[in-house]
Each structure stands twice: as C-alpha cells, then as structure tokens.
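Design review, sub-item: ligand-bound model
Attendees: FS, YL, KQ
YL presented the inputs for the PMV complex:
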Amino acid sequence: MTTGTACGKIILFGEHAVVYGRPALAVPLSQLRAKAFVTRRAQEGIVIHARDLEREIVVNDASASEPLAAITRMTLERLGLYENLDISVESDLPLAGGLGSGAAISTALVRALAAHFDQALTPAQISALVYETEKMYHGTPSGIDNTVIAYEQPVRFDRPKPSAQTSVGQTTLGWEITPFRIARPFTLAIANTGVTSPTKITVGDVRRGWEQDPVRYEKTFDTIGEIVQRAQDAVARSENEALGKLMTRNQDALRELGVSSPEVERLLDAGLHAGAAGGKLSGGGGGGNVIFYMGEGRADMVKRALLDAGAVSVIVTKIGT
Ligand code: PMV
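KQ shared the predicted structure:
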C-alpha cells in the first residue's frame, strides 16, 4: 500500500479579493492533514472509499464532474498508467470550512497514486491537476488552495485581474506564486463555527455583487489589497504586532462584501473580548473558520471564550516555524 498526505491551509489575508486580481497570503496548516491510501485491487476497476463522506465511488461509473473520480482519471492520464485499484481517502480537515479540505484530499490522492506507480510529480504539476477539481468545488477558484497545499509553504498569490480576455477562474496561466518570509513565528487561534458554507456560494454572491456595483466592489478589493501588502511587509520585518489590527480591518472589508455571518461575528466578538489582538474569517466565509492573531499568554483565555461562544473546535497553532 502507498500513502499520500497533504496539509490544510489558512488564508491569512486577501480571500475573495484574490479572485479579482489582488494579492493574498496563505500558509500551510501542517497539523491537520488529508490522507490517501492506494492498493492493487483483485477485481476490475478503480474504487474510491471516502469514509468521511460515507461514499464509495466507482471511477468508471462516476460522472465527469465528480471531483475524486476526476482527479484519479486525470492523474492516471498524466502518468500514462492504469491498474485496478482500491483508494481510500480520509481527512482531519472539516469539510467546507475554509481550511482547504477539498484541495488537500485531491493532493493526497495524487501523491498516493504517483507513489504507487513510483513516479515523481513536481508541486507545480500536482497544483495544476488539483486546480481542475477546485473548479468543480468552487466554480471560479483563484487557485490559492491548490497552490499553498501542493507547495506546503507560505505563499503570496497574485492572479491577473480578470479582463475581457481572461474571465475569472478561466485559466491557470499567469499566476504569480511567491513564497513569502515570516521572520518571526506567531500564534493563531482557529475557531470553527460549525457552519459549513460551500465556497462556491459566497464566491457566486460576491460575483453577483461585483457585476451589479463594480465601482464599490473594486474599491473594497483595493482596500484588501493594501492590507495584504502591509501584512506581508510586517511579517518580513518581524513587526507581527501589526497583524491583529490588519486582520480586523480585513474582516471589516469582508463584511462589506457580504461574506460574514452571525456565527462568524459571534466568535469574533468573543475572541476579541477575551484578548485576541485581531481576527477575521478565513476562506470563503458565510460560516467556516475564524482566525485570531494572539498576543503572548492569551491563548488559553481566548480558547475558552471561543468554546463558550459556540465554537465546535479551536486549534491554537504557531505559524512560520
Ligand atoms: O473557502 P476556501 O478555503 O476554499 O477559500 C476560498 C478563497 C476564496 O478567495 C474565497 C476563493 C478562491 O478561490 O480564492
């Protein structure tokens, strides 16, 4: 049996605006992982066992838009190899929670398949394959999830602004992926609202809003772009204390875009009152996870307050180690 694993990810700054050509910063979340296991199968065909989803997918019978079947087919095509296989996938990452669960499962699956056939794929090749399934999950993904997860390092992500020639999500060409430096590690708390919110929905809502009022939305995207740049400069210069305020300003802009939710706001209030220096939703929003920049020594109090306020889980983790 061969195994492939992949980390989750957190978008620190810049979600949604990144779809419209502004930068975003994302970091791997290495402590939560997706895993895939591949073994040879005695019977005909390829079967994917997704216990978390309580599903068994027969690849040959699955529709073209079934992401796990699609990534399996595409990877085998890319490798130019085929065998009857049993594939199992599992994940520590909550589904539709803004931590990149879909991209992590696909990445783990690609890695396990490549290992099964003793083949090597580069992070760029894996990222490009996984991007194809991100389109199935997201509709118009920027590509940030597959990128940070396939490379497993902090990444600044710049996508060209959509124009008449390249509509949003149409192409993987022209991405600029720059690893960024975190000079001094910092602590984040990640609180799960327990509300699953498919990214496709909030991305679609923002798109409709942008189509109706492009001037207002573009202005908010510009504000987010400036916050991202400041945050990147701050972490490069060890000025981590600036991150709390920047997160809260990023959240203000996300609220303007309409992607916050009552559950997100409740956790934000609780975390900030308990002493977190700042916070924001992370990922698509509408629920999912809320991240907090933690000052020294505050983690226990903040964690307790978040759980009391209804968080279904709270992870405290160091970023940049
Ligand atoms: O919900 P997630 O973690 O998959 O993140 C989505 C990030 C967005 O900027 C909202 C969409 C995208 O494709 O970049």
